[in-house]
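call fold(seq) -> tokens
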Amino acid sequence: MTSFVVVLIITLAVQVQASLVIFTPPILAPVAQHDVGVDAAAVGLVMALIYVATVPAALVSGKVIARLGAIRVSQLCVLFCSAGMALMAIPNPWVIAAGALIIGLGYGAVTPASSTVLADKAPLGMRSLIFSIKQTGVPIGGAIAGALVPFLIVSIGWQHAAIAIAIIGVAVIIAAQPIQRRIDSSQPYHHLAHGTGLLEPLRLVFSHARLRELAISSFAFSGMQMCLGSYLVVLLIERVGLSVAVAGGALSVAMVAGIFGRLFWGVLADYGFSARRVLGLLGLLMATGAMLVAQIDNSWPLGLIYIVCLLFGASAIGWNGVYLAEVARIAPPGQAGSATGASLAMTYSGVVILPSLFWLVYAITDSYAPGFMLVGLLALWRGVIFLRSA
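ret:
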């Protein structure tokens, strides 16, 4: 049990650092745009580049994890994320784009690696909760980004802030080293490192009706989550007139709500309703949150804005643990990493396509509201499907 707790802590730390890196660019964008020479709204394209690289990384993750071990791959993921973040300190659009791609290569295998370990070691009756605990690393990383990055920007400037975020990853890599050999050597599926093609994990998922349903729904839910993380701060600064610190605080509120939301939904899926019924409810809630955010303007009191962000974050950021636990539960034995990687290829595709589509809608309408309405309708569609099938 002690060994499992240590593994959970390490996988959580890896997720926190990777997510801290992911959520930093949208906070840097409004301040860095003058030095970089690109409008802050283009941060959606930066996020899209990150997730373009996550798709192939997720697809090959199962084979790489089987060969190197899940903890070693987790360390490499943090290294790539930190290196890409350091490149983003250079005020050149092409260098920032390269940094985004490097971050994506690291981020793509973070979750498949942790799923490989947790699928083997998590108690069967607590899988949704355990996966949700690990996935709280995403909103924890976002909450830290919302609180820490504005402070660093004011204190040392946006470029040094980016470098400071990158350096944190070194501590995570060092912390994971003591358990690396023991955990990786105990993995029983090293034979799966050979003999599978790049598209084989996708065939696995799309030939399985329930895995296919989860993967398609994750496309809409992940796009919703990333649009929240990418555009909320920019909307509050440009449309409402809030400061970077106050707008970052709103993002932190959403992320903290996501932390508690993930735990609550995980418990509900383990001890209350089925995972699909919980995912259906989450689809309805995040659609409602998106519709409300679309209505925010400078006439709204700050307290009401924070309440909406809290409700939105609890759902749009709270779904991942239940989803990943369900993928690992129904995946064939020994293929949790491959099934998770292929499912996440669809997840990351949503993160690539929907923020880009959001940016296109913004470019056409000069408003953030239609974009939030669009992703809200997609989440509503998948939520209804989950509830009907449940």
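The chain has 16 helices and no strands.
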